[in-house]
Amino acid sequence: MRPQSLMFSFLGIYALDRRTAIYSGSVIDVFARLGVSEEAVRSTLARMVKRNLLERHRRGRKMYFALTPHAAEVLEDGRRRVWETGAVNRDWDGTWTVVGFSLPDSRRSTRHDLRSRLVWGGFGLLQSGLWIAPGAKDVTEILASLDHASPDHASNDPGLDMADHVTVLNARAFKPTEAADLVRKAFDIEQIAARYRAFLARWDASLPLPEAPDDLARQLLLHTDWLQLVRQDPHLPAEHLPGDWPAIRAEQVFQTLARDYQPRAAETAAAVLDTLAL
């Protein structure tokens, strides 16, 4: 796992909704439990400061780090995805968000970025230039982040207004099209299932990760594993997935272990973390 992914889990559990900053030395102590070097931790903290995710607070010779409002928004979104949205979509209303786009050749890089962000947003490619996702999806943030992107090569092409090249619709399937066919065509069901099965292979055991030094390490690894998993999941309607869909068992395992690890992990964190009230 990348140190930054682990850092997001750590901050989501031990910094979000707390008006505190955390001493870098104690962060290094926590991450040593995960096999992450001091150099990697310091580099990750510095990058997150540059990205407006963390802010520094110096007290004497110590440097403390606190969440920015932007970081709090990102972490709150992750918490909702884990604890509220969940891994199994049992409340689908039968609608799809449809995105179609056509970008000029001078915007190949923008086209690639848009595709990547649509995938990250839970969309699947139905056919050339036409993407779908179950339910109502707000794509305005995705489009706004790509507005006025630089062209791929030197030209007189001005900044791009994505609204001129993208169409967003809310739709339902009508015969002869079936919703199950849309799921099968636009999404790699087996690949999604394989990721959940890999999670279960690691965590669905009587004693997961026995090599980890304590429950704080297991907690951070578990949350990082799960958040990466659900963020890659397009949250497809359960009624159109196999009856033995592994996300159901995987979510049960995550929630059980998260509850089991929390008390001892919190006790260890309280003993290790040096915090500064803000």
From TrEMBL:
Transmembrane segments: none annotated. Gene3D superfamilies: 1.20.58.1460, 3.30.70.2650, Winged helix-like DNA-binding domain superfamily/Winged helix DNA-binding domain. InterPro entries: PaaX-like_central, PaaX-like_N, PaaX_C, PaaX_trns_reg, WH-like_DNA-bd_sf, WH_DNA-bd_sf. Residues 90-147 form the Transcriptional repressor PaaX-like central Cas2-like domain. It comes from the Bacteria. Residues 2-69 form the Transcriptional repressor PaaX-like N-terminal domain. Residues 187-268 form the Transcriptional repressor PaaX-like C-terminal domain. This is PaaX family transcriptional regulator.
